[in-house]
Write a structure and sequence with these properties.
heterodimer; A: mainly beta; four-stranded antiparallel β-sheet; B: four-stranded antiparallel β-sheet
Chain lengths: ~120, ~120
């Protein structure tokens, strides 16, 4: 079974500062992928960043980076230089390559509010 | 290019009626996934297809729910004899590569908001 835990229901950050959104996971699959999605108030699901379990380096995409600590089973999202448009709900998700190959498991999300 | 599209965007129906939700994946994407999202929660897996073959339907809540993708492109999620507890956002996603190898990014559609009265 797969499980994603996001322990921060809500987070606040000042504009232009960095913020870390926490995500821990559990899986029995030997190989897996970790994903972060952004869901603004409009309701769409926007893919942000991906980290493979065997990737040697942490993933980065523009202002987004993933702090992947495999031994601790954590995959935290770091947003640098926060902007007002970053205010949204953020979901961490995972998918294995074995028994859970097709199904993504999502956490309950973190609502981020960027203050001007 | 065009993303994943879903129709209708909003559906209001009366309890006991059947509904069909449509998903048109990104062109060339071989895998297609259905999720259900309750308000304030993350998406919950329902089922997925590689081409036209349904690979895993373990997430379908009961036998009132079914899905098909007969030609390996457009998919339909059907809910028979709808109940109020079926009210939710139903999301479709697609990915370029086959599900089963290295996890590939799933791109989501805008969803269909289903309300059962």
């Amino acid at each position: 079974a797969q499980k994603i835990t996001q322990t921060q229901p809500g987070m606040f950050v000042q504009e232009k500062e960095a913020v870390t959104l926490d995500c821990t996971y559990d899986t029995s699959d030997p190989s897996y992928g970790l994903f972060w999605y952004k869901q603004p108030s409009s309701g769409e699901m926007i893919f942000l960043i991906y980290q493979g379990s065997y990737d040697q380096q942490n993933a980065t995409e523009g202002r987004y980076s993933l702090n992947f600590q495999k031994a601790r089973k954590s995959a935290n999202l770091v947003i640098s230089a926060s902007q007002l448009g970053d205010s949204a709900m953020y979901f961490c998700a995972m998918r294995g390559d074995n028994t859970n190959a097709g199904k993504s498991t999502f956490g309950d999300g973190t609502t981020l509010t960027v203050k001007p | 290019g065009a993303g994943v599209s879903q129709s209708p965007r909003y559906k209001v129906t009366k309890r006991g009626q059947d509904v069909a939700l449509r998903c048109d994946p990104i062109s060339g994407h071989v895998s297609l996934y259905w999720y259900r999202q309750a308000l304030g929660q993350g998406p919950e897996f329902l089922t997925y297809f590689n081409y036209e073959a349904q690979q895993d339907k373990s997430g379908l809540p009961n036998d009132r729910f079914s899905a098909e993708r007969p030609e390996g492109s457009i998919s339909t999620l059907t809910i028979q004899r709808t109940e109020q507890r079926d009210s939710a956002m139903y999301r479709c996603a697609s990915s370029l590569r086959l599900a089963g190898g290295t996890p590939d990014t799933q791109y989501f559609g805008p969803g269909t908001r289903l309300t059962v009265l």
